[in-house]
Amino acid sequence: MSLKKLTKDWRAMSYGFLDASAKRELRRKMIKAVAVPGCQMPYASREVPIARGWGTGGLQATLTLLNPRHVVKVIDQGDDDSVNAASIRQFLARVSGAETTLDTLEATLIQSRHRVPEEILREDQILVLQVPNPEPLRPVQPSMAIARQMHADADYGRLWLKLYEEIVRSGRIMQGAEYPALVNGRYVITPSPIPRWDVRKLHMARHLTLLPAGREKRIHAVPPFTRVEPLVFDDVPYKVEDHARVTCSRSGLKGFFMNEIPLDGGGTRYEISDSHLGAKALERAAGEAVRIGETWYKNGEMQ
Amino acid sequence: MAYVAARGGEKAIQQAERLYREQMGRIDRDRVAGIEAALPSLIDRVMGEASLYAPELAALALAQSGGDLYETLLLLRAWRTTQPRLGIAEPVLPDQTFTHRRISAAFKDIPGGQILGPTLDYSHRILATEVLEQGGMSPEPVTPADKPAPSRQPSLASWQKQQGLLAEVTREEVDKHDIPDVTREPLLFPAKRAHTLQSLARADTGGVLALGYAAMRGYGQAHPTVNELRLSQAELRVTHPKGTVFSAGRVKTSQAEMVSKLDADGKLPLGFCATFGWNEVKVIAGATLDLNSSTATSDSPMGEEFFLYHTEAVESSGFCIHFKLPHYVTFQSALDALRGARAEREKTPDASQAVREEEDA
Amino acid sequence: MITAQMFDAPRLVTQQPLMELSGVSKRYGSVEALRDVSARVYPGEVLGIVGESGSGKSTLLRMMNLEETPDIGDCSLNLPETKGNLFALSRYAARMLRAKKIGIVYQNPHLGLLMHNSSSGNVAERLLIAGERRFYVLREKARDALNASEFPLSRMDAPPIELSGGMQQRVQIAKAIALEPAVLLLDEPTTGLDVSVQALVLDTLKRLQRDRGITMVIVSHDLGVIRTMADRVMVMRRGKVVEEGLVDQVFQDPQHAYTQQLVHAKL
After folding, report:
1. Which of B263, B356, B360 to substitute to test the interface with C, most C CBs within 10 Å?
2. Which residue ranges does the record assign to the ABC transporter domain (chain C) (predicted)?
């Protein structure tokens, strides 16, 4: 017996960067997360070659799922071409040989920071949302150990109270993005800081959503066809961002989540947040044959 | 301008990185060797926080990142985590290590003696400007002691245990393959003892110092005394596949034990911290945190969950710099809520008034 | 001045007890907090528990609130929705039962209130735990409970931290009665308040008891408070019940030497 027999030939990097034991850990915890929708599963989060807080959880999940047959799309704040999205997309292609795309319809695996694409996702697509803070109870209970017990007991009174207090103080619920939602009637999740506009897209969706938090070492999931209900009072309706009647100044699209761009001398213009949907609309206007998928919101309203 | 997916982002990040690397110039073997030879304390600190004992790789990472410590750590940690665990070394006991320095503040003299060893503790901190003026400074030769100190030193704690001064800790027999490994398992609270000590060993020196100092100043309940501080080299004894145990080399380690006043049961509570490399500040501060954690409330900065989470160098530094990333989607969402609330207020000046009016309606 | 004679005479205790603790013992390290204590609380009565600090009376009350479990002993509540030993309930079930059926007012308002939330929110939290999901119903019920506790409604959204001690106790009372509890537990509810404020808070409690017939257990080291509030009294010393009976009887004709000492020291 020799050391050579016991080990594989040395290579600078494993396929998909992560070693087999890291991927096994991720696979196991992803399965657990899918099996108990919305329940945060602790996992051994590894260091990856980007900084913690920059999508390391998302990256680990994507790297584990990735194979050369995948077509991968990376979004940051709705934009495929934002610098961090570009960096992650490059890295994924470099270590896996998978194809990359900007088009939601072509992608089989989508890693996103804080947006769900506007085109409806299908059964064969997986959405990996980067999660900075997986704990919806953090504002009312900073200790992870105690928060874990509270989840076990479905002890969400303090979280509801926070919503009550906001209405009393401000006349409305002040939660912007990261709106807490009850998954499958059991666990409250923070759906990563996607806007309220997007939380409704997760409800009874056809695709699988994985929500890994690399720095906090927790992963939770929303499996296909699972109830995702934002925490709202029966008599105070849930409000998405007031973007239904805003028009994108570049693509002319209307009724989608927008970025507000301040203008010199006051005033604002808007640009569609889902950058590639905007690009497709422009291409279509220029007479190109472009496929635009069905969207969750139609004329600014969700069905 | 057409709204096409120009890959401007990819080009921008490429050039930004080039701009950064330009200032460091060419990196080669000589530079790496120079860093390793000239900066042993820095190498030690980096190896401890990376939890990777590899002086040459630590020097390479320092060269590659231009000395940005957090970037250095991330390079090493990301490399380390992909390496297979080939074997598990035999446990190391303090009295078996090759001890270079070992002191106690609790007693004037201790069995085995106080061994000062290499230290800057009593040096005068005068900046050696003559190096710039006259072109160099060579270390004065060390005069060997008449009687060399024994290379192995007993542990003070074992004397204290004999005297009944220390609480007898029941040793849990664990197969070495079952020792919890915080680099391969999530850290949960209350933490496993192994996870606590491993996390402290790889914690950010600056972070441990800040919180340890808070404990020392009075935010902790225990007034610490250095029971034993030890810098040594430990033999890395591993089992060959054929079954023989052999030495694969030595690693530099530091360890500190901090004691407090007698507790209710008449025993000295003891805090412990050890790490790769020689890093005295870290182990003293770390052992002080360990000493205090048992009496801390769960929400206190002296509590284990607080200090272990917040001294994790890769996580804390990464999260800190992530705030540079665009946050305009979340900001937009918050802005929308703010404007909505303002519109409500314009309708009725007092928010709770509005609520009340709606109730009356 | 309020005296016991102003109120109904103690009800006859021939009914089934509403709450019963039996054979309860509890140790904290080397301290024996409770030694084989049994207690019965009858529907509609006010049971006083008196004793010096360290006698175990507050521990007993915390057990009635199911926030503490004994080493041995049982607790039962004679309600359609409860059966068996309540100490065996899961943390979740105990929390739900507490939210719906048991109210408590602590001496220290920091234990019972979120000091930086609104006062109405403190009351609403309890309703939220019990599952109420209508904002305007929460408001209405919180207002009703605060009103019943004689709390000034103009301050209903002020945080307790900005209120006086007496007002803080009224918020605690409102929180405790918001869901019409089967039993209201009072742990030194007026200790530390000015004498005049103390009388007003006791007055409110007495009125609630009279108007709503709420069963109460009140713990106090103050015999005056017990005499004012309680129908029956249990005297505790060093973790044991030394004497038990109707308030007038026990105070006029104490049997146990310790009770005699207590009564005479006070009078």
Report:
1. B356
2. 19-263
My answer on whether A130 and A142 are in the same domain is no
> Which positions in chain A touch B82 (Cβ < 8 Å)?
13-14, 17-19, 22, 46
Interacting residues of B217 by C-beta distance below 8 A, sequence separation 6+: none
β-strand C72-77 against C19-28: which pairing, if any? antiparallel
Answer yes or no: do A212 and A94 share one domain: yes
The Cα B344–Cα B328 span in angstroms is: 24
B162 pLDDT exceeds 80? Answer: yes
Residue B146 reports pLDDT greater than 70? yes
Q: Is A211 helix (H, G, I), strand (E, B) or coil?
A: strand
B74 contacts in chain A (CB < 8 Å): 47, 49, 51-52
A287 in a structural domain: yes
* HEC letters along chain C: CCCHHHCCCCCCCCCCCCEEEEEEEEEECCEEEEEEEEEEECCCCEEEEECCCCCCHHHHHHHHCCCCCCCEEEEEECCCCCCCCHHHCCHHHHHHHHHHHEEEECCCHHHHCCCCCCHHHHHHHHHHHCCCCCHHHHHHHHHHHHHHCCCCHHHCCCCHHHCCHHHHHHHHHHHHHCCCCCEEEEECCCCCCCHHHHHHHHHHHHHHHHHHCCEEEEEECCHHHHHHHCCEEEEEECCEEEEEEEHHHHHHCCCCHHHHHHHHHHC
Burial of B182 (0-12, 13-18, 19+ CB in 10 A): buried
- Tally of domains in chain A: 3
In a shared domain, residues A103 and A33? yes
Contact B259, B107 (CB under 8 A): no
Chains that touch B (3 or more CB pairs under 8 A): A, C
Task: Tell whether A173 and A187 lie within a shared domain.
Answer: no
Residues in chain B: 361
Look at A260-274, B148-162, C218-232 and tell me which has the smallest mean pLDDT: B148-162
Shared-domain flag, residues A104 and A189:
yes
Contact B329, A198 (CB under 8 A): no
Q: Residues C214-246: pLDDT tens digits? A: 999 999 999 999 999 999 999 999 999 999 999
What CATH number has the domain bearing residue A120?
Answer: 3.40.50.11310
Question: Among all chains, which residue has been given the structure tokens 């926030």?
Answer: C67
Instruction: Please determine, for residue A291, whether its predicted confidence score (pLDDT) is greater than 80.
Output: yes
Structural domain includes residue A251: no
Given a cut of 90, is residue B360 above it in pLDDT?
no
One domain for residues A216 and A70:
yes
- In the numeric block, the tokens 């340890």 are attached to B212
| Token duo for residue A50 | 């980007």
Task: Report in angstroms the alpha-carbon separations of B89 from A153, A233, B27.
Answer: 42, 58, 34
Give the span between the Cα atoms of C130 and A157, in whole angstroms: 9
Q: Which domain holds residue A273?
A: 258-302
A27 falls within a domain: yes
Contact C100, C120 (CB under 8 A): no
SS3 B158: helix
Residue B115 is classified by DSSP as B
SS3 B202: coil
Q: Looking at beta carbons, which residues of chain B come within 8 Å of A245?
A: none
Domain boundaries, chain B: 10-80, 94-117+149-318, 328-360
Interface touch B359/C157, C-beta < 8 Å: no
Using DSSP's 3-state secondary structure scheme, residue B200 falls into helix
- In this complex, do A77 and B327 lie within 8 Å of one another by their Cβ atoms? yes
The answer to whether position A71 is within a domain reads yes
Q: Which residue of B has its CA nearest to C138?
A: B359
Residue with tokens 């806007």: A195
How high is the pLDDT of residue A25? Answer: 95
* Reported pTM: 0.89
> What element of type H or E holds A172?
none
